[in-house]
Design goal:
The protein has helices spanning 3-6, 23-33, 63-71, 90-98, 109-118, 132-141, 147-163, 176-191, 194-209; strands at residues 12-16, 38-39, 43-44, 59-60, 75-81, 84-89, 103-106, 123-128, 169-172. It is α/β, with parallel strands linked by helices. It has a domain at 3-40 and 102-209: P-loop containing nucleotide triphosphate hydrolases (Rossmann fold). The protein has a five-stranded parallel sheet with strand order 2-7-1-8-9, sandwiched between helices. Strands 4-3-6-5 form a four-stranded mixed sheet. Helix 2 packs across helix 8. The longest helix has 17 residues, at 147-163.
């Protein structure tokens, strides 16, 4: 058992999905159910999309600032996607876990693989579209996907789906409400794992033995 577990740290949930699978919508609904949970905000060099808020969806920074953070070792993982840089602050994650906060971490499969090296005890969840046809439909709804961009995204989706076998849980997002309930079930079940609650059990046993 890791030191984090022994210190009753929070639970880290790492979520991955192909673009258009509905990962963000699921996370937002789950966070409404569990307001004490924290959505880990990653850093990125890309421009905000309509409706995105700095500090809520991402921390939008310049490429120079991002490179400075790389050089100073502030990221526990970072990656370049479609020409933009994305990174996760190790200090942010460790501080929240140490404080006992449960965290959602939204990463692509490469980022998740890197996080697994640092936090093997985290819970890894993959969100999949119910079909490629539905994925195409959702991407087309954005109105910003050219034929070339669509081809790139579908190729990336194929690579990501092949990585889903490495995750602890797999959720098919055919209907948002059902996917949210499945996610909720995973979270509650993981919160009840013996190793996460054994400190309480040991306390009860110790009181009986005294």
């Amino acid at each position: 058992m890791s030191d984090l577990m022994e210190k009753r740290a929070g639970l880290l949930l790492v979520i991955s999905a192909p673009s258009g699978a509905g990962k963000t919508s699921i996370c937002r609904e789950v966070l409404k159910m569990f307001p004490d949970m924290v959505y880990s905000v990653s850093y990125t060099t890309r421009q905000p999309r309509p409706g995105e808020v700095d500090g809520r969806d991402y921390r939008f920074i310049s490429r120079d600032e991002f490179n400075r953070m790389i050089d100073s070792g502030e990221f526990i993982e970072w990656n370049e996607v479609y020409g933009c840089l994305y990174g996760t602050s190790g200090h942010d994650i460790r501080s929240l876990l140490k404080a006992g906060r449960d965290i959602f971490l939204d990463l692509d499969t490469k980022g998740a693989a890197n996080i697994r090296k640092v936090f093997p005890e985290a819970v890894y969840i993959f969100i999949s579209p119910p079909s490629i046809g539905e994925l195409r439909k959702r991407l087309n709804k954005r109105g910003s996907e050219s034929p070339d961009t669509m081809k790139v995204r579908l190729g990336r989706a194929l690579a990501e789906l092949k990585e889903a076998f490495r995750y602890d849980y797999l959720i098919f997002n055919e209907k948002l409400s059902h996917a949210v309930e499945e996610f909720k079930s995973v979270y509650l079940a993981e919160k009840c794992r013996t190793e996460r609650l054994e400190y309480k059990l040991k306390k009860i046993i110790k009181e009986l033995e005294e």
